[in-house]
Amino acid sequence: MHGNAFLTSSIIINMSKSITFYVQPGGKLQGEARVPGDKSMSHRSIMLGSLATGVTHVKGFLEAEDALATLQAFRDMGVEIEGPVNGELTIHGVGKHGLKAPKNDLYLGNSGTSMRLLSGLLAGQAFNSVLTGDKSLSGRPMKRVTDPLAMMGADIKTTEKGTAPLHITGKAGQLTAIDYAMPIASAQVKSCLLLAGMYAQGVTTVTEPAPTRDHTERMLTGFSYPVKQEGSIAKDGVYAAGLPGAGAAKVSISAEGSLTATDIDVPSDISSAAFFLVGASIAPGSDLLLKHVGVNPTRTGIIDILRLMGANIEVLNERTVGGEPVADLHVVYSPLKGIDIPEHLVPLAIDEFPVLFVAAACAEGQTRLTGAEELRVKESDRIQVMADGLQILGVDAQSTEDGMIIQGGAIGGGEVISHGDHRIAMSFSIAGLRATAPITIHDCENVNTSFPEFRDLAKRLGLDLVCRED
To answer: Count of domains in the chain?
Structure first.
């Protein structure tokens, strides 16, 4: 009941209140902090813990709206989940075939990860389900998962535009494995098909055109479910067959397996840390230590790109926690220079580009991004929204079909609109550190979907930010 009450109140808040950020120019980031838990891993801990046999304990769970939407969906399918309390959960797994038909539609708020992964998981169940979301999620493309799922025999109906709501007719025992080459690198598509593959006859294989985050594969292994990976990647993001580590050119899974409960310690989300990595890199006098950050090689594009631009980032105290690499990140201000961003790093930093555009605006010279058309189908069209906002702030930022060209220089002030995109809102907040006049950011409610502590943490570390609700 606690989950129902929380989610309902969150929905009401989002419908009735408009949140605006006001950022005063200047400042620097100093001190140390631990940002909230990784969102990708929080989602997956709920999904796999629910399907496991036994009791799974989770620490570091992200208590934000997206992850809580996943939690509520599994409660609605009969899974007993205690918490979250201080980031800790206890999941009483029902086994791979133990989910029950939900009495109502499964509402997933703003969470594209929840909808895309659940579509694969629910395609092979013995019951029907309907997945819905908020206005933003209902406008995001779902054909990228429903088309390959249809090749497996899934029955999922979308709107004429290929968007939610998704009406899923359960095909228990009727899915057939496929060998699927993804046209665009996407961890969500890969994970969706792997979850469906757990219920399909034969071996499902997904081939990636470029490395994507591999939390699903790692966590499946942690829950003792067999996954085969061929051709992993080195830390620079280049495929190198036979090397241990993250990512895979091919990933294969079958229905021959079960999940055994385990304990999960979710590291801090590098996507949330990214705002402060950029902030400390662009604001003179900054000296910041970010602790216990997940540094999975499929997620560290933000570090690699900033270092290529001249950022001073040290990776300290590297260790492995629950199968995931973790480290402390020490960043000190250093002048940045513009670069052509290597395309092989793009999938490794896909969620961090809004704030990387801010770094580019502060860099000397030109920064060019190509091969990032995926950014146009996120919570917003992140290429166009960031280009529009940067132009309002006086930055020479030109959008292209698959990226952006930014001429570094001064950042002015002005009023920008985040279009309900949490990463846009937080990125323009960080821009205030180098702005010459105040920045007002409208439509910031969805910061709560991934990083509800952002405002307080940013202020504590040195950003002059005020939040107002109307």
So the answer is: 2
